[in-house]
Amino acid sequence: MNSKLIFGIARSLLLARWGQTLVAAVGVTFSIAMFITLLGFMNGLNDMLDGLILNRTPHVRLYNEIKPSENQPVNASSEYRDSYNFISSVKSGITRQEIYNSGPIMQAVKEDARVLGATPKLTAQVFFNEGTIDITGMINGIDVEEEMRLFNFRDYVTAGSAIDAKNVANSIILGKGLADILVADIGDVVQVTTVQGERFSLKVVGYFQSGIQEIDKVQCYASLGTTQKLLGKPANYFTDIQIKLNDLDLAPAVAQEYAHVFRIDAEDIQTANAQFETGSNIRTLISYAVGVTLLIVSGFGIFNILNMMIYEKMDSIAILKATGFSGRDVNLVFLVIALSIGFFGGMVGLVVGFVLSVIIDSIPFNTAALPTIKTYPVNYDPVYYFIGGFFSLITTYFAGFFPARKASKVDPVEIIRGK
User: Fold this and answer.
1) pTM for the full model?
2) Of 29, 31, 57, 239, which is least packed with CB atoms within 10 Å of its CB?
3) pLDDT tens digit sequence for 179-201
4) What b/e readout covers 3-21, taking b as 16+ CB neighbours within 10 angstroms?
5) Domain count along the chain
6) Where are the alpha helices (DSSP H) in 221-374?
7) Is residue 24 included in any domain, yes or no?
């Protein structure tokens, strides 16, 4: 049968029951709009939470882990060499925390095509002296410029300038929680005592805020040179090498390779944040499940409307079949009706979903825990819009398939005889 004629009949049936058609289209529009809005907001939230941790976490970390020696004296004894030796209360061996042969390792890592960048880090445990009280803290010695380039360090410095940690001698960027405890303003000088008993004066040049309050009460940042001076160590002394890769998914394999080649402990980001990543995946799965459920519910609405339309249009269907339309032609008519509702309702739903996302994205969201976030986070990934449009057509197709099949089997003789 002529496809133009089938589309014309489908259009006439749609317009004849304009109210029902509008209700069905609004159902699809609402479902798609909520699907886009929910998915964009939930994944924007996931991206924000991931950013709090992942932006500040190296993809691969090289370090020396403090652990008991595997070669105990009893294993060296010829008398017990072939025995299974069970040793209790094993203490950690003499393990050097600094990375041995750090210069060649850094050079080899930076020359690896898989590596975006690598930067050294030195961690120092200290006490901040507040009158007669000593407050425990942790100073992270960093290459400030590389830290800003690779790990967005500048975004987390909420007051002062991150680069001042490099440009100002004997300076420190305090965690905001610790700064509140010390009542230290920018420009003030704080007294620091190392675990070796050495006392230093450091100038506060900024505040750091990660969004995790307990961390901000302990962690501070200084230049690598300042931290080495605090510990009385040479310029080539550091305890970590932080590596950022071009492809995050390569982190486990690269960590294993580096651990084997450099004879050093290596930790990848997936291992370090396994629980956090699982939580993100579950939240994404829930948002998809809710969105698909909305689409299925709208599909049932279209199914019911088409069933009612078929019941009310039995005379028209009988006439079509009596004048030469086949069951396949009638089937196509009602499938065109269903897909038309899905297409136009879905397109409007995508637009409405985008508008709602923009509205949410412009709502102010100010909290002391998340200083870098100014509005509610929304993800505008085009994949969500493609999935929404695809599901609107698939859902309405199946919603119209069974009513269309029912219409194609109508016997015109029985309908006309009944009338």
Assistant:
1) 0.64
2) 57
3) 888 888 888 888 888 888 888 88
4) eeebeebbeebbeebeebb
5) 2
6) 224-231, 251-262, 269-272, 274-312, 314-322, 327-361
7) yes
